[in-house]
Amino acid sequence: MACESTLQMTDSRVPSEQVMSERVSRAIKRAQQGDRDALGFLYTRYADDIHRYVRSIVCNQHEAEDVTQQVFAKLIRVIGKYEERQVPFLAWMLRVARNMAIDHMRRQRMIPVEEVRTTDEGSGDPAGGRPMRDLQEALSSLPIDQREVLVLRHFAGLSPTEIATRTGRSEGSIHGLHHRGRRALRAELTSRGAAPATMALRRS
Fold it and tell me: In this structure, are 102 and 25 located in the same domain?
């Protein structure tokens, strides 16, 4: 009986999902008015979720920490745009985090193929950075949705199902974007006089 009473007392002290949702809603409204304490509450509530999600994209602990901090720094500027009736706050935050993580990877010149070589192997091109530049420029020329799927699929290592869940698209749409993105990337590299030596873009 004593154990049961203790358990009940402990449970009563744990905020229910509804109570926490109401706290988050109030914190969002206060944060939109510039309340730094409310922003601190949102950081405490969601930092771990954002960090895990970002790390699944950038695949590096320290870089994930940096991007997570950048996400919450940006939150101060953009939280006023959030409208609660349109999408849950965490889903909105994950969208912000995804965009920042992909931007971070683009700046760091992360590439979703193992090797790119010029078509003229005998030229001995001394510009060792040229293949990387070719690939970066080719990726940049793709529509953002195709580029995003290629990066998440082949650098972050996510499955089509995981990408669909994280981006809010159907799995069929992800397969289509992946196929068109691979084809467009190959064509763009060829037009630039660069061709993939081995395409590490796994078929899904």
Answer: yes
pLDDT digits (tens, 9 = 90+) for 99-134: 898 888 777 654 444 333 333 344 444 444 566 667
Is the full-model pTM beyond 0.70?
Answer: no
**∠94-84-100 over CA atoms, to 5°?**
25
Domain of residue 138, residue span = 115-198
User: Residues 79, 31: contact at Cβ < 8 Å?
Assistant: yes
> From CA 43, how far away is CA 79, in angstroms rounded?
12
Residue 81 CA: distances (Å) to CA of 29, 84, 92, 199: 11, 10, 10, 40
* Exposure string for 101-118, b = 16+ CB within 10 A, e = fewer: bbebbeeeebbbbeebeb
